[in-house]
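Hi P.,

Sorry for the delay on this. The queue was packed all week, but I finally got your sequence through. Input first:
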Amino acid sequence: MHDEESLIRRAKQRDQVALTQLYEENFDRIYRYIVLKIGDRTEAEDMTQQVFLNAIQSISSYKWQGMPFSSWLYRIAHNQVVDHLRKKSKRITVPLDESLPARADDPGHVAEQKIEIEEIIVATRGLTPAQQEVISLRFGGELSVAEVAKTMHKSEGAVKALQHSAIAALRKALGRGGEA
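Then the structure:
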């Protein structure tokens, strides 16, 4: 944590190396969190970039409170997702044809993976907002239970209960009953 605190101090002084390090350490987790929330990879990439632009613009107002820097980034990402979903509900959209060839050796495997991911995204929409947030942070953002608890301002027990009920609901929605 002390290393992160000094890294943030340097980033607040616009140290490019520190800013780059914070970006590289957190980009994938923030991206996975957003893509799980909105279900659109291209849009998630754009939104993730915007999260980091917003973070850089307002890093001078960041106050170290002993929590991981990623918690602050997740809060920015959450607000970005809420804004996106609010705007999206007000406009009509037409899905793009994603028929571009995939960069993988086995197109069948890629197709199966894509279908599974889409099924999971659809299934998560049936969860409560709190369950969706826990699933996104735990598995999309790869945060620990303690980090999710801090980010969501809940107890670790509440996060564990939400995760358990969310996984049970997902298993049921995906027709996997008792499978692990």
